Amino acid sequence: MVKIDRQINTLIQKCINTKKIEFPKVETANCGLLLKKEIVLQMESNPEFIKLNPNSIEFNEALLKEAEVKLEREMPKNIVGAFGFVEDFQEKLKEENGIAKNVINGYGSLIKGLQGYILHRLHSDGFDVKGYFLDKLKPKGEREKELFLFEQHLYRFLPYSKYSAKDIWEICQRTLAFDDRYYVDEFARKLPFNNFDLAKNIYSIAIRSEQPNDTFFIASLLIGLHNNGFEGVFEKAFELQNKHPQQGYHVLNSLQNLSDEQNNSIFELVHNDYLPESIGSKTQVICGLIDNPKVSEELRKGCFNLITTYLQKENKELVKIAFHRIIYNLKSFEAEKYKLLHIYFENTQDISVIESFFYNYEHPEHLFHLMKMFYLAGWQRGSINRFESSIFHFWSNNIQETEKHILELFKPEDKFGLLPVEIIMTGSFGALPIDLLKLDTKQEQAKAIEAITLFPHTFDKLLPIVLPLRRSPYPEVVKFLQIKLSELIYDAYHRSLLDDIENLLDESKEDKAFVRPLREAYKNYESIVSKKKSINDLNPYENERDLMDLYYSLEHENRAKMMQDINENPNGILAAVGRSTIIVRGNSWKQELEDKVMPLGKVESSFILDARLFKNPDLQEYILNTYDKR
Amino acid sequence: MNIKQLVVKDYLESLTEKDELNRIFPLLLESMGFEILSKPTEYLGLQEYGKDIVAVGIDEDKVKKRFYFELKGGADRNITTRNFYGKDGIQESITEATYTPFVSAYPKFQELPLKVVIVHNGVIEGGLQKTFENFLVKISKPVDNTVFERWDIARLTAMFSENLFGAYLLTDSSTTKLFNRVLVNLDTSDGVSRDFIKLIDSLFEKIEWKGYKTKIPRKWQLLFESLKLISFIIYTESKEYNNLDIAKRYLTHLVLRYWYWVLKNNLENNKKVLKHFNQVMLFFYEVLQQYFDRTLSIVQTKDGLYAENGGMSEQVGYTQRTFDYLAYLLILINMEKACFPDYDLLDARTGVYNVVQHNSVSKRPLLDIHSLVIVNTIELFIQTDDVDAAKAYLKSILATIKYRKEKSGMLPDANNSIQNVIKYTVTGTKPVYYSDSTSPLLAVLLEYIALFGLEEEYNQLRIFVKKHDITLGLFIPHHSKNSVSENLIEDKENDLEEQLFSKPLRDGYQVDTRLTKNLIDELPFEEFKEKIKKRKDEFIYEYRTDKAGYAFLKDLAHFYFHTPYFPDKWRNVTDGLLKSQG
To answer: In this prediction, does ipTM exceed 0.85?
Structure first.
């Protein structure tokens, strides 16, 4: 017994020190014992890892003791005091471990488990949790701040409580009646896995309910029960579908290990359902069947044919609903799914779906096919924005293939202009770090240099991408890079570009030789500028002040308007992050009831402007628009 | 406080270069009635006779005398022990001036008493005063009939105030204040200040020209001298600001206003008046020459007219500056062509070509009035037998105009307001007064298209004009020799030229150039060419300015007042070429 106590305390310290709850087995002493006691659980995604079971009674008992030691007081016996006590414990942990006060989730998982346990402890000590919830707990907007998330703790506690199925169902019904479903649905989904018998008992009572609010709860219970071996659910789902199609489909879509016959029955059910309002659920069920590796090729083909008919419907709203489900629920068969996209385009002309379409894709091949298609059909400034999230998705999940596809766009014979550079520039924190040395031929490398140096803005981000080509095995490429960079230094970015280049070079002989002509270009630039500065005859500050003032006052006004538009736009980015407070003076801020003054984060951004854009904007735009066109 | 004295003293003290005093001092002598026999500028720095100015005039004692003036300006304007003694010192130069004879055909020149005057726009060092006086006493002893004097800043201030500024320019406190304000604010406004315009107007309007019998009346002589003085003051002040653009702008106004006065009083053939006018005009020419000497080597580098310190506003500023620059360069070329028969036009063509090639925005007209530069450039290329360059230039202008319209919806503003162009560029909203549904510029370009036989460009432009519903309207003044609309002239006080030289000319009508026949059918290129040929006599006018030999001044007036060229400007050239093409 002493031994397990010591192990638990070690685990607690480990969780506190590392701020994690998942660990490699090899780093966890007496892992077997902890697993046996269900203090830790095997991670399904990685057999070499275990994770803390935050609902473990034994663990939470020890954690509570730790809290009492740290806070040097016992847990209060009243419910508000007890939850306040846990919050204090969390802040104490954060303070001791260098986490700022206003940072959420420092020890989130650990504390959530403890909050569930608090109810268990109070309940064991005679506190009437059910009575409190049903009769005394105030509505959300009025209750004490410590009890704001009371439902979350309650449903975490219920599977382990001594309450009867009837009592629990009563609690659930109360929550459902208030349409505050998130935690209760989660409870229904997990309960068959956590406490199968209790789930069965609750189901047998709940099934008698005629309340429409309760059907989703019942459906969730059914899924869990079936997937834990409970018989007769398939038939029940059909009955449910008859009364509540949406819930019925939801259950049918989630049942595992069905027979061929059962799968065929589901298909038939969907096929014969002509209700337009079920189109979303039906599409979801069909996507589930397609993704199910156990269904026959014939059935899958039928499924594709069926959703194709959905996408060809006249009612565009229904088509959009169906396609939305396909995007998120059809996870495999990427080529066939891509064909569906084109059927969808043809019917709706709605290209906005591109932004989310590749959400479940593993391979970027079809994204690149689509971008090329759009490019050839008429690419405009801003066209790339539609593809940004998809590029980001593939760059995060399949970097090798994505890089390969980007590099292929530099083939001179294909004439994709600035498209590859636009793709590279979609990186959220700078350009996507493509390795241009992977381009095989000197023509491809030269094309990359040409396109990148023509790109009209934020060249500082592209510089680290193009500069490695100074190590190209082809001397002509190196020379070409020097020429193009020299042009940019003279024409567009001047000293700032030379500085950036020099910062990225090393002290090697090769780099010193490489930078020489670039310095020469800057010297030439400087010499002409100093010549201009030597007289005021051509200086706009001396001879065109009124025009400059007009230009910049309008420009200033324009920016102010833009900021106002952002603030007034309810869909804008500022609105999305909630109310924004402007710090008019000072370098830090403090909330009214907080003790600490928080320094403002330093947000700095810089970009260098391409002077070619305002020297002759029409000519530059013409060059950009006609560059490398077929 | 006597503002006038302060202004004059400040100004004279500001002449820190030797040649500046050399230029202004003769004006004083002329205004005092001296007859100048030799000026320093006439010897171009050669050490002739050891004296800077030789003149004959009546001295304070009412006796007619010979005067040798030795001028010490610039670094020598203060007399100190450093510049008094030694070789090439002031002492030596006075001695030399005294003993070196000056030969003149002036009647009884050698018999007149002599006064040698050392003139310096500074002071003499305290300790040197006595030495200097002793030196003068010593040097005057052996020579008969000769006296010596020293005119310093105080004396010059008094003389300039009384004889030149006081006599005409700064006669009353309001003119003094105006002139003072002009000088103080010389570098604060973009164009030409209202004060300057008012000052010049008031000078010309103060007295009425009533002609003369043998000699131009003194008050007018003084006015002409004052105008020279003003030109010179503006120029020296501009140099102080290291900015000859100021002098270029202000003298443009002065020359145009002066010529307007000449025309208004029908003096364009009066040699005595023209002599005075020429002095101001040639001074303006010298200023332009200096301006281009300072800038041309810069401008002929890649994007040479682009201002690196201008920032984003350069998207309008660079283009506008380039067109202004080319306008003056072409005016200067036309001036030189008129004044010097041996002028190398090919060399000038190369200069313009280089500016155009190195500054791509020269093919990007933002205002309709940029047509002046386009017409003059094409004309220059044609005159130098470089029709290929003219065609290439025309084609790139057309391409840019079409591209801008297609991409940004903008044609050059026919109201010629660069402010509106800025507003449109920055806000993306077309200002109410931005006018581009009518394009006089395109109408002119179409005639060149006909001239060069560019059928493909004609057809493309026809489609473009139809697609964007553009009216091609040319401005024709009512004053044509064969005019049928003279009755519509509103300003009856001023003839065409008087209007052209005094304000933006609006007394005329707009005539459409249609690219259709019977209002619907497309007009084929050949028929269009025929139509243009037939229109060659649409506007005929005999300019007094041309007869007097100042045709180039019209270009300056068109530019300054934003008046588009009249069709005779280019049709005289195009007509010849069309004939030669058959």
So the answer is: no
